[in-house]
Design brief:
By secondary structure, the chain is mostly beta strands. It has one helix at about 45-50; strands spanning about 15-20, 20-30, 30-40, 60-70, 70-75, 80-85, 90, 95-100, 105-110.
Length: about 120
């Protein structure tokens, strides 16, 4: 059993810069916690696909909480979900996303699999 672990997102272990915002990461054992601050205009194709090693949609599973703003998810099968502040989501692999509107979208994301 792991001991209690405390880390602060203001002191990230990694930073992933985007054209429209950034994500910061802390690791808790085998899990990752990300805080993403995505600016208007952020979209998976332009901002995240370059990290995805040739994938045309996100290959990761996300457990996410939207803190502020609005984001749209489009699954490879055509399913679409729009989420905003207070929404908790489970997002399976095979999706793309876009910030909706003119407000930053801030997300907290827990991942149990390694990121890009």
């Amino acid at each position: 059993m792991l001991p209690i672990t405390r880390k602060h997102l203001a002191e990230p272990e990694e930073t992933m810069p985007f054209k429209h915002g950034q994500s910061v990461l802390v690791r808790l054992g085998d899990e990752e916690v990300w805080r993403s601050d995505l600016e208007p205009g952020w979209n998976w194709d332009e901002d995240l696909e370059p990290y995805a090693e040739g994938a045309t949609s996100c290959p990761l599973t996300h457990r996410e909480l939207v803190i502020s703003g609005t984001i749209r998810y489009l699954m490879d099968d055509g399913t679409e979900v729009v989420a905003s502040d207070g929404d908790a989501l489970f997002i399976p692999p095979g999706h793309r996303a876009w910030v909706v509107g003119d407000e930053n979208c801030v997300l907290i994301d827990w991942q149990t699999e390694p990121s890009f």
